[in-house]
Amino acid sequence: MTEKSATPVSAGHLLTVSDLTVRFRSHGEAVYAVNGVSFDLDAGETLGVAGESGCGKSVTNLAILGLLPQPAGRVEAGSVQLSGRELTTLREEELRKVRGSEIAMIFQDPMTSLNPVLRIEEQLIETIRAHRDVTVQAARERAIELLVAVGVANPESRLRSYPHEFSGGMRQRVMIAMALALEPRILIADEPTTALDVTIQAQVLDLLRRLTAERGTATILVTHDLGVLAGMADRINVMYAGKVIESGTTEELFAHPRHPYTVGLLRSIPRLDGEAGGKLVPIEGRPPDLVAEPVGCSFYARCAWRQERCALEAPALVQIDGGTQPIVTTGAGATHVAACFNPVAQAEVAEGRPAAGRR
Ligand SMILES: Nc1ncnc2c1ncn2[C@@H]1O[C@H](COP(=O)(O)OP(=O)(O)OP(=O)(O)O)[C@@H](O)[C@H]1O
Ligand SMILES: [Mg+2]
User: Fold this and answer.
1) Which domains, and CATH codes, for the chain?
2) N or C end: fewer C-beta atoms under 10 angstroms in the chain?
3) Rounded to whole angstroms, how far apart are CA atoms 15 and 17?
4) pTM assigned to the model
5) How remote is the CA of residue 158 from the centroid of ligand 2, in Å?
6) Mean pLDDT across the stretch 230-248?
């Protein structure tokens, strides 16, 4: 019986992030890194997070895991609930139990989570035994199973290797094995393939997709690359300047983007269907640096759809329709929302600017 039919629908989500606000403070200066981020995540779901460098993708995840650099980084407001349990106020000792066994993270650079001076065997066994009461032998068998699951050939002899003896792609697989060792309910993959070449990238993404589908793991997949998310994510949060500025099902977001920034991002990636005429257009300008408290819409300076009002008032994230289609709701929280006073019309998407007479 599947989980969906076995359990009555409960109001609670696996993970609920509400109004999460993170600041960095040092020498009297503040960085407004995350400014009121809210989203839900359910079991078996893959949530993609996209946005340019510095928009708060990693800081959001570090805040969820209680791993903000100390003492500069702080959750100043908002909450993170894992099955209804508040994480932002947990003591470090409690958080350590949550990390790994309930929420695991895969980083961009495997060397940040692999210890270079320990054999893979020691690291995997240590991870397993730190959280589970099992013998070394049982942990070792589990380690072998995990390496097989992530496609490492000759796992028995590979266990004896050190991280530097693996290629980049293989190290990434080992890191995924480490993250999956305790069967976490949530996997956060922050740019898991950025450092890899394209073929290996595809293999690792494939592996992630298969493993999360088999285990019903909920995944947060962060990448600046919307193209990667097209084949992986059920829903996408587009972030800009520390906020989610548009969110919807992957299908809906690609077909009917409404926020000017999302439209810009989509125009700046290669078309997946390889259709001709797809000239890549980078978004002009740069995201604001986050040292000043945001006033108005953060995308104002770069936006072709901007109106006077946008400079003064920050648009709230509100439900929006697809422009030509009715609102799409295909699951918990999967409605289409955007934070824009002057959303892009369907006919304007291809041009990347407002139709004449609309400005
Ligand atoms: N330790 C820190 N101290 C001060 N500011 C920080 C710190 N870490 C991150 N920031 C700032 O927080 C903001 C969000 O950074 P974050 O790392 O979340 O961006 P990102 O979306 O993950 O970018 P990228 O795609 O480059 O990984 C940025 O303005 C960044 O400069
Ligand atoms: Mg990052």
Assistant:
1) 3-102+184-348 (3.40.50.300)
2) N
3) 7
4) 0.89
5) 30
6) 95
Q: pLDDT band for position 323 (50/70/90)? A: low
83-87, 225-229, 256-260, range with the lowest pLDDT: 225-229
Question: Cβ(235)–Cβ(292) under 8 Å?
Answer: no
Query: What is the pLDDT at residue 329?
Result: 45
DSSP conformational letter for 316: P
User: Residue 301 pLDDT > 70, yes or no?
Assistant: yes
User: What is the mean pLDDT of the segment spanning 156-160?
Assistant: 94
Ligand with the closest atom to the CA of 53: 1
Say if residue 225 is exposed, middle or buried (CB neighbours under 10 Å; 0-12, 13-18, 19+).
middle
Pocket test for ligand 1, best of 23, 26, 58, 265 (most atoms within 8 A of CB): 58
Question: Ligand 1 pocket, 56 CB below 6 A?
Answer: yes
Pairwise CA distance, residues 258 & 6, whole Å: 37
Q: What strand order describes the sheet that includes 318-319?
A: 103-106, 186-190, 218-222, 46-50, 235-240, 243-249, 337-338, 318-319
